[in-house]
């Protein structure tokens, strides 16, 4: 009986958490489209997410493209399908690895920073101070981050796609001895618009998820430094798990037959 | 106190956190232009009381009227209108670390009232001067200030928009006695100059004696005594006597685990 009750309690608390997150999301999204807007804050978040994440996302993309070419070569050479490497690299980068890896890296860099910043503002009463100064904290703190996350991750992923394909090109031509022109031809011959578009849609959703979980965890943090630490962990872990879940859902929507 | 002169009226206010009852039917009136100090031990509900009045917490039941208008259960827009009457000095100052001092002081003017940045900065510098800080302080960041200076900046932020009602949450906590007295003096001057209604919560008796017109004592979620500050020493209330003299023996039992 106690075991059943324990399962029931876990299920109820899961429903409660889901409900709280849904209400928070609904309120935050509604504030994204209702004035006043804070263009300066949005721009600052865009620079933080887009510009300052470029090095980490670029490095991740180039090494992923390089290793993808190398692994595909060692695998495909067993049945003499080396010519498919360029196509495998470009499709893997644009459809899957570009958005997922950029999403995960940004979750670690930006999601954690958002949770820590907003969490610290919560425990030091800065969010209460915003309210007393007639400023809606959801509108001032959360909405600019959501807008920046939603718009900047697709741009980052576009850059990551190009860098990842370039990484594969470098390994294939300089190390594996492929003809550069033939490699590029194979890269673009089999690439369709939907491959890139699906990756960018994923990126927009992942950017929203990273910003949402960072803001939500920080906004609801409690209990001083320990609470802020817990919020930071929650933001990164929950965003990462949600990115992987939504990656499957979006892939299913775009490519299932 | 006549109904007309009442700025804040709290009736039968209840607030619990889980099984813990913090406010248990609290009643309180604050007159227009009056400086009321609520005293009481830690965990007796002082902070919860002002957070309920200002709308940062939602009471379980009861009534809170500002200028005769009910504020419990009002819409977000109506709340924002009510909040424009308030200023608040937080216990830990709660300055925004990501903004320089002058933008902290001008925040309510720029974001809350839509004032132009140039004009708001001028008012912020004037307000900083009124709490004894020079214009150069306006360009510093909150992290570069001492605790006493942070309190002054927080006071400047609370009064910059010339609010009708100002709340002071433990204004002298963490300050040395001399700086505490300086802050108390500034509070008295600012409140008088603005003609504002002030509600302070503290357990610092020196602060209470300096800034209060009237004192109310909260215990177990209710106001158990209130009267003019002049009658604090001979209140005839055993709880008040124990509290103001800081005695371990008396009707107030502290939860101490041996």
Description:
The complex is a heterodimer of chains A (257) and B (258). Chain A is an all-alpha fold and 257 residues long. Chain A is 86% helix and 0% strand. Chain A has one domain (52-255). Chain A has helices spanning 2-32, 39-51, 54-76, 85-123, 126-132, 137-175, 180-189, 193-219, 224-255. In chain A, helix 6 crosses helix 7 (180-189). Chain A is elongated and about 65 Å long. Chain B is an alpha/beta fold and 258 residues long. Chain B has a domain at 3-85 and 163-245: P-loop containing nucleotide triphosphate hydrolases (Rossmann fold), CATH 3.40.50.300. Chain B is built from eight helices and ten strands. Chain B has helices at 46-54, 76-83, 101-112, 117-130, 147-160, 177-194, 205-211, 238-245; strands spanning 6-17, 20-31, 35-39, 61-66, 69-70, 86-89, 165-169, 197-202, 214-219, 222-228. A six-stranded mixed β-sheet of chain B has the order 6-7-8-3-9-10, with helices on both faces. A four-stranded antiparallel β-sheet of chain B has the order 2-1-4-5, with helices on one face. In chain B, helix 6 (177-194) links the parallel strand 7 and strand 8. The termini of chain B are far apart. The mean pLDDT of chain B is 89. Chain A binds chain B through residues 117, 120-121, 124-126, 128-129, 131-136, 140, and chain B through 51, 54-56, 76, 80, 83-84, 86-88, 90-92, 94-98, 107-108, 111-113, 157, 161.
């Amino acid at each position: 009986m106690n075991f059943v009750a324990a399962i029931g309690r876990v299920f109820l608390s899961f429903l409660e958490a889901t409900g709280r997150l849904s209400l928070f999301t609904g309120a935050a999204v509604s504030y994204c489209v209702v004035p006043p807007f804070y263009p300066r804050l949005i721009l600052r978040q865009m620079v933080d997410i887009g510009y300052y994440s470029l090095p980490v996302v670029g490095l991740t993309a180039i090494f992923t493209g390089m290793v993808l070419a190398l692994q595909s070569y060692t695998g495909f050479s067993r049945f003499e399908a080396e010519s498919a490497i360029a196509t495998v690299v470009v499709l893997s980068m644009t459809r899957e690895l570009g958005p997922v890896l950029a999403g995960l890296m940004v979750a670690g860099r930006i999601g954690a920073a958002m949770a820590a910043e907003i969490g610290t503002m919560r425990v030091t009463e800065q969010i209460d101070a915003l309210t007393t100064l007639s400023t809606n904290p959801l509108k001032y703190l959360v909405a600019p981050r959501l807008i920046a996350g939603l718009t900047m991750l697709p741009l980052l992923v576009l850059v990551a796609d190009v860098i990842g394909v370039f990484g594969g090109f470098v390994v294939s031509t300089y190390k594996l001895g492929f003809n550069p022109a033939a490699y590029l031809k194979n890269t673009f011959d089999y690439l369709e618009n939907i491959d890139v578009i699906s990756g960018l849609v994923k990126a927009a959703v992942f950017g929203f998820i990273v910003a949402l979980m960072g803001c939500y965890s920080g906004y609801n943090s409690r209990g001083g430094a320990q609470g802020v630490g817990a919020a930071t962990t929650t933001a990164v872990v929950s965003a990462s798990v949600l990115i992987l879940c939504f990656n499957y859902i979006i892939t299913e929507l775009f490519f299932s037959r | 106190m006549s109904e007309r002169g009442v700025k804040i009226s709290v009736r039968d206010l209840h607030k619990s956190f889980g099984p813990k009852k913090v406010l248990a039917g609290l009643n309180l009136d604050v007159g227009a232009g009056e400086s009321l100090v609520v005293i009481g031990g830690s965990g007796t509900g002082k902070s919860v009381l002002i957070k309920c009045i200002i709308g940062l917490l939602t009471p379980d039941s009861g009534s809170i009227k500002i200028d005769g208008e009910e504020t419990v259960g009002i819409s977000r827009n109506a709340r924002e209108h009510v909040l424009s009457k308030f200023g608040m000095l937080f216990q830990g100052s709660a300055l925004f670390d990501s903004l320089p001092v002058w933008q902290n002081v001008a925040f309510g003017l720029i974001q809350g009232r839509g004032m132009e940045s140039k004009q708001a900065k001028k008012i912020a510098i004037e307000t900083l001067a009124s709490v004894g800080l020079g214009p150069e302080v306006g360009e510093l960041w909150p992290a570069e200030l001492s605790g006493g200076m942070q309190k002054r900046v927080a006071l400047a932020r609370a009064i910059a928009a010339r609010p009708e009602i100002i709340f002071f949450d433990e204004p002298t906590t963490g300050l040395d006695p001399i700086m505490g007295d300086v802050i108390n003096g500034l509070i008295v001057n600012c409140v008088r100059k603005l003609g504002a209604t002030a509600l302070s919560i503290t357990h610092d008796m020196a602060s209470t004696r300096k800034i209060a017109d009237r004192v109310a004592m909260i215990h177990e979620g209710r106001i158990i005594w209130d009267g003019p500050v002049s009658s604090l020493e001979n209140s005839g209330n055993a709880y008040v006597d124990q509290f103001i003299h800081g005695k371990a023996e008396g009707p107030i039992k502290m939860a101490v685990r041996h």
